Here is the input.
Amino acid sequence: MNAIVVVGAGQAGLQIAECLRRGGHSGPLTLLGEERWPPYQRPPLSKKYLGGAVADERLFFRPLDYLAKQEIEFRASTQVVAIDRANTRVLLANGEQLAYAGLALATGARPRMLPVPGAEHPAVCYLRGLEDAQGLLVKLAAAARVVVIGGGFIGLEVAATACAAGKTVTVIEASERLLARAVAPIVSQYFADLHRTQGVALQFGAQVTRLVPLAGGGLSVELNDGTALPADLVLVGVGGLPNQELAAQAGLTCANGIVVDEFARTSDPLIVAAGDCTSHINRRYPTPLRLESVQNAVDQAKIAAFSLLGLAQPYQDLPWFWSDQYDVKLQIAGLSQSHDTAVVRGAAVSGAFSVFYFAAGALVAVDSVNRPADHMLARKLLSAQRAVTPEQAADVNFDLKLLL
Ligand SMILES: Cc1cc2nc3c(=O)[nH]c(=O)nc-3n(C[C@H](O)[C@H](O)[C@H](O)COP(=O)(O)OP(=O)(O)OC[C@H]3O[C@@H](n4cnc5c(N)ncnc54)[C@H](O)[C@@H]3O)c2cc1C
Here is the structure.
């Protein structure tokens, strides 16, 4: 028996299962998801879905009968509560046990909770899954005043959607700029200006100290500088935590994620992991990464499937990401954290520009705002590790395609 069990039926779990079938795994294949739905896309949840423009079914990756046709046994509402590595079995919440010859963990991540008094109030929302989004949609419709805690991608996308729906929106950010961990100050400034122009109030360097219920309904969001903001709805977007507990309890090495090598293998040779739940090695980078992105979930899942098929291939795909806010598309290629030089191609005032990041003279990342062609080119340049100079990048008259 060569049964493979995949735990977590999200972006990475589905990709692992499909790659296993495409790659020739002909034995039993079971995809276990604790949520009620078939595998679905999360990115629209903070964007078009929250704007009311997308039906639940449109989020599903595949038609309902697709998995059955692939002979992938998909079980919804099925939580794995333990991994018995000694007997190569997983234990389900309903008491059932499933034996595996190979096991893939794709358990994703969850929102970091706001650690302040009053945060358990029903007007305080988080956004990770479809159930969260369904609840948020209803609460948003009834709310007039929305406070978003956290000026990261999810917070800003919700702020943009709420603002477009006519709500009074305030974003509270602990650091001095938006998206501080992901982009250069010029991009942060662009998004701050964009949100302010749309009518969103931004408060920087602000810490939430507590949330106090108001007599007439809603909450008062109290900040460390003494400000109190009334809110009918509070959306917390202060980062994610990897769902690593199942792995850790089974004795697998975990450190800010399930630790995997460049072949997506955990510390147990029969178990691989992929997606938001992993701390992983990508050959492009000297230190382990934990990324929450569609690209990583998809590309790393393929590596995990290859390993289960005995065809180990190293993970070396270029990370990329996108975010939609209002009619602006931000696209990120590569990781800019190590940069020492950044140059701008185009002009921020025009609403279409890219920032090229260099470390020790080498191009490491490109953020593009409403310049999709730059983004696609950047992915090719970075993937092929082509030499680009800051002067070439900053010169809009220089055709970067010539470097490919
Ligand atoms: C609101 C939102 C917007 C986003 N926007 C973007 C974007 O614009 N661009 C981008 O690149 N990325 C975006 N992302 C990130 C992207 O969606 C994730 O990186 C991706 O979904 C990760 O896939 P995954 O399979 O690792 O995890 P998930 O998709 O979270 O899947 C994990 C699944 O495992 C299940 N699970 C966990 N534990 C168990 C268990 N013990 N038993 C059974 N099932 C279990 C979970 O319930 C979940 O269904 C967004 C994410 C969110 C939440």
